[in-house]
Amino acid sequence: MSVEFFITAFIIVVSPGTGAVYTVGTGLTRGFRMSVVAAFGCTLGIVPHLAAAIAGLAAILHTSALAFESFKWAGVGYLLFLAWQTLREKGAMKIETEGTSQARDRSAAEVTWTAVLINFLNPKLSMFFLAFLPQFVPAGTPHTLPRMLELSAIFMIMTFVVFVIYGAFAAAVRDHIISRPKVLAWMRRTFAAAFVGLGCQLAVASR
After folding, report:
1. pTM for the complete prediction?
2. Torsion sign over Cα 111, 37, 165, 123
3. What is the share, in percent, of the chain residues with pLDDT greater than 90?
4. Residue 32 has what pLDDT?
5. Exposed, middle or buried, 156 (CB in 10 Å: 0-12/13-18/19+)?
6. What are the residue ranges of helices labelled H in 88-180?
7. In angstroms, rounded to a whole number, what is the distance separating the alpha carbons of residues 188 and 94?
8. CB 167 within 8 Å of CB 36
9. CA pair distance 113, 119, nearest whole angstrom
């Protein structure tokens, strides 16, 4: 495994993005346990893109304007929906207090599903992995599929670990934030604005 791959993958993973923002927000609003759930969901959300890149299906998004635009605007709409829910303190970004085991299970499922959709509804990821992974498969490699799967697994592990660290830091300062209503209100506005900003960034993205 090349050092270049580890360095490049690490830079990509630690760069602020939708998944990182959501994991941090979950850590602040729901604590460390749910931030781990969010990190897991975000990691699951990149599996379809990695699979598409390996199978070459990402090329369809690159060549089909309709497919790309449809996928892109679904992602934009979902990010704006998350911003609206965050401002109204509903959905997966709602401040969580102690509750029943059944309520916690529903909460975990909601956080996981939201995290998966956040990364799944981003067509740029498929095309990114289509361009990214083959660079680290040496020319002339007799069996490229195992190599691609290995690179994908490492990327996913790095994503999960880094996002868990983000969530842990957020959860560590959670009590200091939720006990201050004004700070909490600004936090909600900041995360809502971040989702809107990421939605706008995706809206102007092109193939």
Report:
1. 0.77
2. negative
3. 19
4. 92
5. middle
6. 101-120, 123-132, 144-172, 174-178
7. 9
8. yes
9. 10
Main-chain phi, psi angles of 180, to 5 degrees: -120, 100
pLDDT of residue 40: 96
Structural tokens at position 155 = 């990327």
Q: Which residue has the tokens 């704006």?
A: 80
Q: Are 49 and 58 in contact (CB under 8 A)?
A: yes
- Side-chain-side CA neighbours of residue 138 (13 Å): 6
Sequence ranges of the domains in the chain? 17-203
Give the C-alpha separation, 188 to 207, whole Å.
32
Give the rounded distance of the alpha carbon of 161 from its chain centre. Answer: 13
Tens-place pLDDT, residues 25-35 = 899 888 899 99
- Which of the 8 DSSP states describes residue 174? H
Residues (pLDDT < 70) of the chain are: 1, 56-64, 67, 71, 89-106, 139-141, 205-207
pLDDT in tens, 127-153: 777 777 777 777 666 777 788 888 888
Reading phi first (left if > 0) and then psi (alpha if -120 to 50, else beta), residue 157 is in: alpha
